[in-house]
Prior knowledge:
CATH class: Alpha Beta
CATH architecture: Alpha-Beta Barrel
Order of helices and strands: EHEEHHEHEHEHEHEHEH
Strand order of the largest sheet: 1-2-4-5-6-7-8-9
Amino acid sequence: MMIVAHRGASGEAPENSLASFKLAWQQNADAIEGDFRLTKDGVIVCIHDEDTERIGDKKLMVAESTLEELRTVDIGSYRGTQFANERIPTLDKVIATIPEGKKILIEIKCGLEIVPILMNQLQRSELSAEQIIIIAFDSSTIRACKELAPQYEANWLNDFENDFDIEKIIPILIEIGAEGLSSNNESTKNLADAVLGLGLAYHAGWTMDNIDLAQKMIDWGASSITTNNPCQLRKNLYK
């Protein structure tokens, strides 16, 4: 069962920052999860929102800004002065933190325009295909990734709080060619059973910081658990 650090060890460090990812590795996470978007000048950067307002010291729209402009934004100070020098990292900088044998979950937060650029960059990286997992809420994005680079595992994200029709979810999951489903479902084992019954993987998505809930997801057959606190989760699960 894989412990995934949600936006890095974001319970203790600024989300989607190099500090957060490096801390996740120090805490022995099996994988990191990060959010990725495309800049105005075609660079893939790691940030969740479409703008920098929530985590930054100024507001810039990611898709309307160049990398140089985005790098002027302080994305660390909101979590403390010790993180004041944190800047929005590029995908290649995030990849450079990944130890041998560890994995990255790349969540695509923008549109299909990022897919060919992302696949090209991943193929040129030093990561093996087994270290890379693509995730996205948009089913067409998962389909496009599987068509362009089938060697990479791709899992569809499902917000079960908003879309809880299992009869609708399963056919889409099959049609897009995903290897699995990642969901925030905490209420029904039926969804996990339906996915596992297809021979696909079921993942407990964002974010399982409660030990009892995490244990329930393991009992349901989850292949991974995504958490803001990988160190605490591992310690409590295996004590």
